[in-house]
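S., here's the first fold you wanted:
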Amino acid sequence: QHEIVTEGYIEKADPGLTVRFPLKDRPGESLLVWTTTPWTLTSNVAAAVGPELTYLKVRQGDEFLYLSRGAVKMLSGAYEVVGELPGRDLEGWAYLGPFDDLPANQHPGGWSEPGLRRLFARIPESAVQAHRVVLWDAVGEAEGTGIVHIAPGCGAEDFQLHKQYDLPVVAPLDENGVYLDGFGWLSGRHVSEVTGPIVDDLRARGRFYRLEEYTHRYPQCWRCATPLVFRLVDEWYIGMDGLRGRLMDITDQIRWIPEFGRDRELDWLRNMHDWMISKKRYWGLALPIWECAACGHFDVIGSREELQARAVAGWEVFDGHSPHRPYIDAVKVACSACGAVAERIKDVGNPWLDAGIVSFSTLRYGDDMDYWRKWFPADFITESFPGQFRNWFYSLLTMAAALERQPATRTVLGFATLLGEDGRAMHKSWGNYIEFNEAADNIGADVMRWMYSQQRYDADLLFGYHHADETRRQFLLPLWNVYTFFVTYARLDGWRPGPVKTRHSESLLDRWILARLQQLIGQVTDALDDYHVYKATGPVEAFLDDLSNWYVRRSRRRFWKSEGDADKQAAYATLYEVLVTLTKLLAPFVPFVTEQMYQNLVSSVTPKASRSDSVHHCDWPAVDPDRVDEALLADMDAARTVVTLGHAVRAAANLKVRQPLGRVVVVAPPEKRERLSHNAALILDELNVKALEFAADEAELVTYKLMPDNRALGPRFGALFPRVRAALAAVEPGAAVAALRSAGALTLDVDGQAVTLGAAPATLTFWYKIDSEDNVCGHDRGRVLISSAPVAEFDLCVSTNTGDWVQHTIGLSAYVGQTVELRFQAETDANLLSDFFVDDVAITP
């Protein structure tokens, strides 16, 4: 039940049938009873009411009916309320059942398959004799009629009422869902075929009252979607109440990823029932339970040796076979209680019981405790979490708690579900199902593995071809393109790995990419050590972007030049080292492409004695502290930020990179100027400008004009707003900007009243005018100005959110990785202003 029913409920429309249960001692009076499973009426034993609910006695024509006050809306036709009483006053009322003529309902103790009847033989009453009203707190007032029909052989809750009130049990179905003998005209018919005939029979006998369609949650098979029915069977359980506290203590000792996994497991443990460990199947773990038919005692056999020692028959049939049916069934043992011959029960174990003992059964727990202690507990287990809290995680916890009082694992990593790209579960009938072999052929195993690796554990993975194409474009193609670039030019130049020491390269780019590689090794290692695979994929893709779009692009001329000087050799050696290290670093993620790269880069050119046969036999890359250069990384990051922003301004102003510009002016503090100066030549070359200049403050470049946001401030200040505008106009704009950036707000004196602006978003707009007359973006004399001073969010005005604003914002934000300001000016021509003049442009991550 745990692994099927709880994960397989659907919204389903069923017939909601209301029937009459005539009261024995009250002629002309009936209980109105409602059910959505008419087949269970054949096994009715009792009717339940809520003790605290109010029930009405209503007259309809010549009959009197009882139902809850909240359910009167379901009555058909006119009625008259003639009385009311609390539910507890109905307790014990006897009634006539809907199918009392069936032999099964006249048998003492109830009726079931022969193997179950002994369990209820002590109950003297038959179902017909037991028909009475019982109290049940779970009865609701509004659903149905407020009177619930109870069939202990057809439902788990009903069976609990059997235990509470010692009711007989009528279980009508065999293992195929077919009615047993004893049910008259229903015997031999499948449960799915009887709803219509049962309704017709009740109608013919005057028991029918009403039929309507009712939508409710109903269990279905999680594999084939066939609706399920509850059927009473004799199973074996582990009592869990004695283990509950211990299990919860152990759960707290485990690291759960994501963290909410712990709360979900604890919630399951608080509400779990006894654990059913048996199954009515043939193949599976043969439960080592031998039951004595003579006295009812059972023995649990702990080992093959114990079984052989206690066997009184059948050992020769079993000897030499694994402990599975049919051979294990042949072994008989002497009952330890009475000495009679005991046979193994025919049930096999619940599959999760088998899965739960893997920490012991596979680690020689029974015969080599030293070996077991070496490997127990596991460092880490992982499974999809929607159902495993009550399945594998639960079974592992239970076995470890029972046997060793400690966790079976130190870490549990759960992850969400794989769905179709449309967000629905994958089904062939819905057209979103992709079979694995099809996906492997059309998408590629490495692409799929990277998709899985990228996914956050707490979010469902939407799997499909569009997602795969995007993954291939962002990750696999950049990796393969860099590899192809290297292999192509290395072959043309006849380059082979040699004694060149990359750590001594004179190239700033070489030293930078190797420092970035060390940084990446640390990032990926830390992420994997912490079991957060998806946190490793972002740094990998960022590194590939740096490698492809910065290192290789900036170094292409070094590979292209005809002379084979030291600089060219250093470039080859550097890129070779990066690629070989990447194959090792990425091998667990994308094993196939990295193996192909390794075989070509290493195996094909390196003597066998000095290399591993496979990338998967190589040691994991370790960070080399001597090659970590944080200052160099910071210098290059600062330079690339300026370059990125410069390209963004060029794009916004429609200035092609091939068009030389006079200078780039960067607003930066002294320490950042020094850092940028280290890479000045690179910045100038990338931006195609002649000079790099610095400004200590943007005020050196621009003047300000303060504009209040009328739509935001007008409703706020009302009649006071004109004087607020006047006070704002009297403030020196530069001082206002300084106040806003330092204090987060601008305070004005309005007729002796302090008024604060800027505390909320979108209260002021800053218009900038470039002072220098020769700075005209989009013309030969133009230049680009870049300011890195952060802009507070409230400095933006939503009133400027026009089409142009959106266009500029989208165009600029694609390049930016930190809070920046970009500003440029255009000529006063109206068309140019509409295209290029931008308010205070603030781009945030």
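And the second, which I think is the more interesting of the pair:
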Amino acid sequence: MRNFYSIIFVMLFMSTMNAQVRYMDEIFADVTVTSNVQYAANVTVITTLQGLPPMALPQLMDVYEPTGDVATNRPLIVYLHTGNFLPQYLNGGATGNKDDFAAVEICSRFARMGYVVASIDYRLGWNPLAATQSERTNQLINAAYRGVQDARTAVRYFRMDADVQGNAFGIDPLKVGYFGEGTGGYVSLAAATISDYNDIIIDDLGNPIAKFWYDPGDGSSIPMVIEGVHGDPEAKNDGFTPDGLQLCIGHYPTYSSDVNFSMNMGGALGDLNWLESGDVPMVSFQCPHDPFAPYTTGVLIVPTTGNLIVEVSGAYDVHAEINAQVAPNNNDVFQSAALSDPLSLESAANGGFDGLFPVLNDYVGGVPTQPYDGSPWQWWDEAAAQAYDAANGTAVWATQMTLNPNMGPTEANYWIDIIQGYTAPRLALAMGVVAAGPGCTDTAACNFNALATSDDGSCTYAAPGYDCNGVSLNIEGCTDALACNFDETATIDNGTCDYHVGTDIPTGATEVWLVGLTLTGTPYEPLAGGCEAAGGVNPNVSINGVIVGDGATPLSMAGINDPTGLLGELAALATTVQFSICGTGMTVAALGNNIPMIGNGQFWISPIPVNADGQYLWAGPMLNFTLGCGDPSACNFSGNPCELSVACAYPGCTDATADNYDPTAGCDDGSCVTLGCTDPTAFNYNAAADTDDGSCVAVVNGCTDIDASNYDATANTEDGSCIFLGCTYAAADNYDSLANDDDGSCTFTTGSGCVGDLDGDGVSATSDLLLFLSVFGSTCN
């Protein structure tokens, strides 16, 4: 049975707090909810469930505020609901919306404590039924990535609103936290830990995190998420596929996505490499017996299908990692307070850390009696689930009640009491709203005090245009380090930046450039063809495009093509890269750095590797390379694999009469094929065919004349057996010269009227007798 002492501890703890302390107690009676506020619009793949292409849809949220509150600088909580990245019911569950019962309850409670809480929708969509674990992982990782982008976009929306739209919800843009439940917990943990794109795919030692890379089918390995295609992790910038399909719309790029706190209920972290010293304080709630998300580290099981997806780390290992950090660790802001309330003591007694509350729901003797209930704080509308089942022939209600037979507001609110009571003091400390010591809390102030936990109004600020020492900040010039005329002393950009100086390096729509990565030391080293050993590169393993821009803004590449199909990641990156050309020098802004390229008269190459595989980036005009045929598989291979293959002819069938004739073939490879029936006994035997195409038809003898009385529709070979019925007597009035079988239909006229004149010549003579004798004995009908 449940440990009912916990609820007593909650009550005791709440009663020992100072009465009506904002951010610790519910000091407001009511909550005002503004529903369906649009915080952005972005491209979702959920439309593919309806047979439609990905498209941009509005992103909405419900904002909870304490009714009657006059404060205008309130901490903000961004709440992320559960749902397996699929719509409610389609995900196999009865939850999955921003207005789930648990979401509404938790958001309302914290709003009554004085916070502003935004329950947001984030993009859904992936295929849990994909055939392989790699495919399922790829799709789920991209779904989670979109969730991270949306969570961070929501944060920036509020900061933008506070900056330029009058701060409609009265938030403090410097105090923001995430709450994530279930699937939302995965998002909240990832959004709070991923520092940049490389953090997702490269481990702490600089090696690729293998589970987030996949083979696209050509033996290569590429990341499941590509920044240029799917957008950056904050969704500040657009993302496009190589064929131009937009998958991410950037929003509010000048605002920070940083938060101060992250709380997770039943989620997990995609990889412990994402968690680093300096990340925000974290609080977690998870059932050690959670049947879908591991409590430590293991393979995630998607509740929708029960299929294995990807290895993740649950709450226990996340907090073990935090507590293994060199002091002070990420949770020091509340661990140093040494909280000793009943819930903190219970957490420790149940094997948790300060920040991790093990959810031992329905345990007896240390064993869960409901091992499939990993979210006891959830409850949902049974009637709605039953109605959905009745309309769709599903069993959502029965399945969910089997997993959580105690489901209902009583059980859910018991655990929400604990979640609220355990989180409140830690959240308040992390947000800096607990009065532990007055001082200036504004980091922009000259007298900012990092130890202050509440603002005492003592902040002082520099005069506009000056620093705290009175030194003028108004130095005009080009402030972009990528520009040719960058002025490192400038503090105000005056719009004079120039990104293209000189004509030494050819650009423009008619100048095709090649861009590639060195291959030495990679699995593709054989493709280098020995070119790199001589200090060169193999131009045949490259993407191509043209450099566009007039220099008033950074230059970029357009018309990008990947002829080999081996450089998809580079092609995607090239669509977002900006660069400058200054005389004979070229600088590329990529992967968060400005990379000065080194020219050798033929191409430009990066001075250091640009990825964990040790590859160097190179680029050069196509016409700087020897044109010819450097492909050893071509008929006219020049013998030099370092030639750019622009005039290669390849083997094929050169016989114009063959069925597989290739008019582009430069030499015959013996592959010509003439299709037809090769069976000499067949009706349609083709003596010229060398490959039987299954068209042979057997010989069928019979009468093939459709006018014959014994016509055989199945016969394809005439055997002379046709029968034609009719009058076969030449003297008959209706004689039929084509008939070969008399059918007794002959008719004769009476002649001239002369008795015995059978032949009608007007004379009864011997000829008439002979005619009579010729038919004597015949039976007439």
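Why I say that: Confidence is low (pLDDT under 50) at residues 1-20. The chain has three domains: 5-439, 500-628, 749-781.

Talk tomorrow,
H.
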